[in-house]
Amino acid sequence: MLCFAMRGSQAPIVLACFVSLIGCEREGVHAYRVPREPSGMTQTALGLQSSSQESADRDAIHWSVPQGWREDRTPREFRLTTFFADSGKVEISVSAFAGAAGGISANINRWRSQLQLQPLSESVIDHTLEMVEGSEPLVRVFDETNGQRIVAAIVAPGDGQTWFIKAMGTPDSIGGVRQSLVEFATSLRLANTGKVNSAPSPTQSSTMNSAVAGNGTGAVERAVAAWSAPGHWRREQTNSQMVAAVWATDSGCRVTLTPLRRDAMTAISGINMWRSQIGLPVVGNLAEADLEHFSDTASLFDGVAEDGEQRIVAAIVQGPVQNWYIKLTGSATEVDEEIKAVRELVQLVDTAEHGS
Fold first, then answer.
1. DSSP states of 28-76 as a string?
2. Counting beta carbons within 10 angstroms of the beta carbon of residue 202, is it exposed (0 to 12), middle (13 to 18) or buried (19 or more)?
C-alpha cells in the first residue's frame, strides 16, 4: 500500500492589511512588493510597512492579469488589491498573509461559514480541494456552492506569504470567471527567480525538463528519455516547469508525467482531484478508491464519468523524494486503445525510481 506524507505544521495567522502597493504595469504583467515581517518593521493602523527596500525588492511578486479583468487599487481591509470581471459584476480579492496564514483548514472553514456551511476537519478538507495539475508552485482550489458560490485559489509563491485569490457571487457569475481565476493564481511567481514559463527549445523537448527535481540519480529521466513510446504518440513541448513530459496520441488522448514532492500532494488528494475532473464524488480513503496495485510503490486509478464519456487512468509511483503521477485522459473508447502503453510507462517509472 502507498503511504504519503501529510503537510507540516502550520504557522499562526497574521492579520494584516496592505495599503502601500508598489506596482508596475506592462502588457498585463504586474509586480507587487509584499513585506514580510523583518526586524525594524512597523505596524500602522492601515497595515504593515517594510523598513528595507532590499527586502521589498526580494519579495516582489509578478502576476499576469486575465483579459477582461479590471483592477481597482482602492485600499480595502486585508487586501492587496481588487479586480472586477464580467463587466464589473464579479469582484475578485487578492490577499497575502505571512507564513501559512493560520493554516489552509482555518481559511477554508471561514469561507464555508460565509456560505452558511458547517466547518470540516482538516482530513476531510484535504479531500475536497482541487490541486491544479502542472502548477508551480502548487495551486489549491476551493469551490463550494450554497445559494452563493465561492471559488478561491491558495498558493505560496515562495515569498514567505500564503496568497488567497477569491471570488464570491451567484453560481453562474462565478462559473464564468473560475478558469481565469485559476489561471491568475498559477501566474504568481517571485520576480527574482527568473522562472517565467516558456516553451522549451526543440532540443529540450526530447528530454525531461531540467527544472524537474529527480530522485538524486536521474534514473527516471534517463529511462523515459530512452523509452520507445508507441509510434502514434507524439511528444509535445510543455511550458510548465512542473510537468516532466507530455504526449498526445493519434487516438485523441493526452498523457502527462509529473513529479511532485511527497509533501506537496497526498495520494488521496490526487485521486480525488482526478475523480472531480470527471464528475465523480470524492472518497474518504484509499480503500474506497478501488486502486489496482502494481507494486508496494505503484498504484493505478481508473475512473469513468457517470455519462460514460470521459475516462481518466492515472498512476501514482511513490519515490523517496517525490512521487510520480502518470495520467491518461480521453474518451472511454480512446483510453482503451492507450492503456496498455500507459501501464508499460508506469512500470518503467516504478522500476527506474527504485532500481529494481
1. TEEEEE-----TT-EE-SS-EE-S-HHHHHHTEEEEEPPTT-EEE----
2. exposed
**Residue 58, CA distances (Å) to 31, 109, 256 in order:** 11, 32, 34
Who's near 233: CB < 8 A, 6+ residues apart?
A: 247, 248, 249, 255, 341
Handedness of CA 120, 124, 128, 130 (dihedral sign): positive
| Domains, the chain, with CATH or none | 23-190 (2.60.120.1690), 202-354 (2.60.120)
In the chain, where does DSSP find H-type helix? 53-58, 104-114, 122-128, 171-175, 178-186, 202-205, 219-226, 267-277, 332-354
Indicate the pLDDT class of residue 183, thresholds 50, 70 and 90.
very high
| Span 39-93, pLDDT tens digits | 232 222 222 222 233 333 334 788 899 999 999 988 887 788 999 999 889 999 9
Residues 6+ apart with CB under 8 A from 312: 274, 277, 278, 301, 302, 303, 327, 328, 329, 335
Coil, helix or strand at residue 179? helix
Q: Kindly report whether the global pTM for this prediction surpasses the value 0.70.
A: no
CA angle 144, 188, 329 (to 5 degrees): 60
Residue 314, number of CB atoms within 10 A of its CB: 24
Check residues 57 and 98 and name the one with the higher pLDDT. 98
